[in-house]
Amino acid sequence: MTASLRQPSTIAAAYPHRYAVVDVETSGLVAQRSRVLSIAVVHVASDGTVERRWSTLLNPGCDPGPVHIHGLTRERLAGSPTFDRIVDSLLPLLDGRIFVAHNAVFDWQMLATEAMRIGIRLPVEWRLCTRVLARRLDLDLPNLKLATLADHWGVVQCRAHDAVDDADVLAALLPQALEHAAGQYLDLPLTPCGTPRDDATIRPAHDQTTGRKPRCRYVNPGPLAADGPLIQGMQVAFTGDSITSRDTLAEEASAAGLHVTSAVSRRTSVVVTNNIRSGTAKARAALAHGTTVLDEQVFLRLLSDVRPGRLREQTAPDIGSVLTSNPNPTAAATATATATHTSHPFAGRRILVLGEPHATATQLRERITAFRGIPAVNVTASLALTVCLDGGEQDRRMPRIRHLGIPVVPAETFLRDIAASRSLPDSLSLPPATGGTEPDALLSAGATPRSPRSSSSRAATGRVLPCGGVQDLPTAVAGTQWTIAATWSWDACDVDVVAFLVGDDDLVGADEDFVFYNQPQAAGGAAVLNVDGPAEQAITVDLTAVPNDTRKIIIAAALDGSRTFGEIGPVEISAQTPDPATWLRATLDAATTERTLILVEIYRRADAWRFRAVGQGYDHGLAELARVYGVEIED
Question: Global pTM?
């Protein structure tokens, strides 16, 4: 649902929609396991005026979760209605309106899941995430938090994480964001709303009682050696019929310090079964992985003498000691990057490549990166230049590019200008576009790249990385939290961004070290997924919260079904700290058939962390990728 390009005189003329601005407070982050505690809805007309306000507290019938954040205690919620008692009031408030929220997919999924529990579907067809909208506006801000946007537009925020106040603040911000978008001829990033996602085929195995499989206190020592003893931390799976009850076997194994698993993967140490040819999913997986198999009697004998294991280290190294031993490991690298970054007119500029063929466009983006330019994947107000290959002039984005006054040049002109600025090896040359317009016909007066608008102040300490490029991360406290955002073409299909926290063996230590749409946060908050919309997602990594036995954080993207990254096109990666002057950028091109793509690795090197832009693709799907890193996927 998008609006065509127009010359708007008012917000209503540009975007003739009615909006329901929504905020919810919840007991947790996962819709399938958490409950809504409070709801606020503000009706905003197409001209930006507030029409109505409505709110309620809810009795969730469970622990309210992080009271220190939302302040909603059991006592405060006692006596409030349950969701089924207020749903008849809520549905008319949403019907026929655009669902607006800051991180809209979260608020919508929480409410839609509550409705599904009582057999009702929310009457919401489209949602608008104001975080996504703000990002597309290219605002020169350190982050896109609601409080930051409120301060930017002069809106007073009284009580953060209060549904009523947050909804009021967002309703006041919305007209200003829409006016800004209309001035840029921007199509609103509206996302269709279907059924809340709960893909059981990509779900780590959980404990049936608690809903979450506990993390073993011991590090997995690996496979069981021939005739060797069991060691605390070994992963054990049971399958098939047994003389002793399965629950008893599992309880005794857990009490001895073994890690009982409900699926078999590469990191499973031993499978216990009295019939390995039983044909169960675990038996088949054990045969496929070559996992050691014991019958029940042998297992019970070994269980009587389990050897001590190595306790898992739960905390990251002390940042103060790291600073003392290596106060600035990236100073030389940053100085070199700065000198290179500012030595070319394309440095730090966002440059969009349009047209085909794919291989030629990929080479051209590599050339842009070589000169520290930023290959863009979408049209934004900060775009400095558009380069056209064959067919680029017919791209549907060209009218907006023209409206924004962004210079447009054919590829041959761009390459000629590069060659005039700096000589390059012949191996990097591109074939000229064929069938295109003559250079003079496309090149407007003064068609040099526009100066970077929001990135100019950051160019001194930021760096553009090529595919495979590596950068040491700063160890100052401001550099211990990184948000790694992935963006692809706004008209592309949905992509899932995930993260794996793995050890020296490239396997996760527990299933909670797999971060994805059904489990958006790793244990301890070391990695958190933010799903802003169908074309942009981010993983926030807190390096101070990463367990010491985690050696690497792998961030990947995956497509569902038969779709490939050849259809999606390039993926733009940005890594940002709370300090807006510290950033990394990379644009990754897959080939044609890949369904999963490793985007980034953040890994330990001595007492520091390094960042690598990977760009390695695979033809298999997310379930297979998760199994590669040892996640136990339910069969």
Answer: 0.67
